Amino acid sequence: MTSIVCADWVDASLEEVARADAPIGYGIVQPGPYVRDGIPVLAIRDLRSPSARTAHRSAPKIEAAYRRSRVVGGDILISVKGTTGRVGIVPEHFKGNISRDIARVRLRDEHIPQFWFQLLRSADAERTMELAAVGTTRQELSIGTLKTLRFRFPPKRIQERIAVALSDMDELIATLEASIVKKQAIRTGMMQELLTGRTRIAGFDDLWTESRLGHISRIKTGSRNNQDKKPGGLYPFFVRSATIERIDCYSYDCEAILVPGEGGIGSIFHYINGKFEVHQRVYKLSDFASNVSGRFVYYFMRQFFGAHAMENSVKATVDSLRLPTFTGFEIQLPSLEEQHAIVEVLDAVESELASLDERLAKARAIKTGMMQELLTGRTRLVPQEAVA
Prior knowledge:
The protein is of the alpha+beta class. The chain has a domain at 209-333: Alpha-Beta Complex (Adenine-n6-DNA-methyltransferase TaqI, Chain A, domain 2). Helix content is 36%, strand content 21%. It is built from 11 helices and 21 strands. It has helices at 14-17, 60-63, 113-119, 123-132, 143-148, 156-194, 213-216, 294-312, 323-327, 336-374, 384-387, and strands spanning 2-4, 10-13, 25-26, 39-42, 57-58, 76-79, 81-82, 87-89, 97-98, 102-105, 139-140, 150-153, 209-212, 218-221, 235-238, 244-247, 252-260, 270-278, 282-286, 330-333, 380-382. Strand 15 (235-238) and strand 16 (244-247) form a beta hairpin. Helix 3 crosses helix 6 (156-194) and helix 6 runs antiparallel to helix 10 (336-374).
């Protein structure tokens, strides 16, 4: 396929592209209590992946009064209350209804539902719906307003080609997301087994010893403040978040683990071996004992320190950690050689995950670029045979 300038797009309101016998409207006002064998009712939380496994089901006698809002495969769903402008598409063979927070758009036969699903998720469409919503504490996009919103679109044959191209990218993104989730689960299981000694690496059978962080490392906080950071600075600057800032100076040049003492208690861990700077409310663990791998300690803390931190955090306006919480944390240590072997295995999994994350970021960027080009009419996909 190739791309050429597109000139045959038109614009119309949502009401004009919707079927006359299925007017745009929202769903069940009061779905009633959950009924195990009732009618599935889709809510805003279901828009990302609508299915019959929705968390709500209404009694048939309640749902019967809302026949007008029943949905079928290919119907476009748009959230109109609370979080407005979210878009979903009903899968084939789904039988059910929608809540009052969702509007249904059933398209005329000359339109491709998958194309409109992609179009209404585009940045331009999101801005259009965002500007049309009203309310301060709770946003609302009225059905009357929704009907009048206008969008540009091509003929059906081009809608179909665009839908296929963008749907293929969605499938790739979904596959990568699933692979990452699976690999993360594998990593968690491996860490649980390897870092407790329940599973041993071949060739190692020595007993593990127990120690405390305060006995195997030096622990202290930094001295910098947030205002010291410099965008594009030469060195990493570890602050109280998962984001690593930059700075133009450094106080340390060593192997270290960095853990915020506030915010994201027990869930944020950084490892570095080089030059860096540290915020005054971030703890630095360094100067590890000669029989200890800092990288092993990093993995051990990621797996087990969180629960310990939550149990021992100081409860105030903002939960925080104090030095004794770190120094008293117990750690199980195999021989240094086995620590290195465990780290090698876990680093390999981390590398695979990083590669998958990179591929996912690239796929999402490509999808965004495709949407900007294909859904605005700036470029147009045509069959290769037409080019020939």
